[in-house]
What does this fold into?
Amino acid sequence: MSDFIETLITQAKEAATSEKPTQAIRALLQKLVSEPAALADAFDLDEETMLYEDENLSLWYTQFTPDTAVPPHEHKVNAHIAVFEGAQCNFLLKTGGDQLEIAKAKRVSAGEVLSLGPDGVHAVIAADDAIARGIHIYQGELSTIQRSLFDWETGDAFALNEANYDANERTSTDLPDRFKSALAKV
It folds into this structure.
């Protein structure tokens, strides 16, 4: 692991255990994405990778493509999404009705940070014709939390596991029409 990533892990651990972890994590991420070239050089990874995890945080390198949408899901902890290259479309969703409702489609561009609370549900795809790369910090040990995916149409919840995740990824052309429409507007 590079010195840059080791330093990032140390800083993230300090932020996550500080007196005000949410604010400290956001400040750390905002500082990081203000220098996107350093991040692009540090992360020459080809796929999403967990960089570090303990009981206070999970630190991930992420990348989203313009042709594959991450299925609607929850984290059950505060999630902080920082983009350093490209742009993401985060569909912020409401569950509990007759269908999964898009509360807002939020564009998160390079240099921006988006935070979701523990009850947040979202789906993600690159907002443009290029890969969107970023750093995500979750305020907890994400890999040990039992989480849910949500049906694209009905919003019905089911277990988040590898098989369900793979079965519910969508290509941009296979998104429900309301998601395609929202994506076109971000």
Summary: The chain has one domain: 3-185.
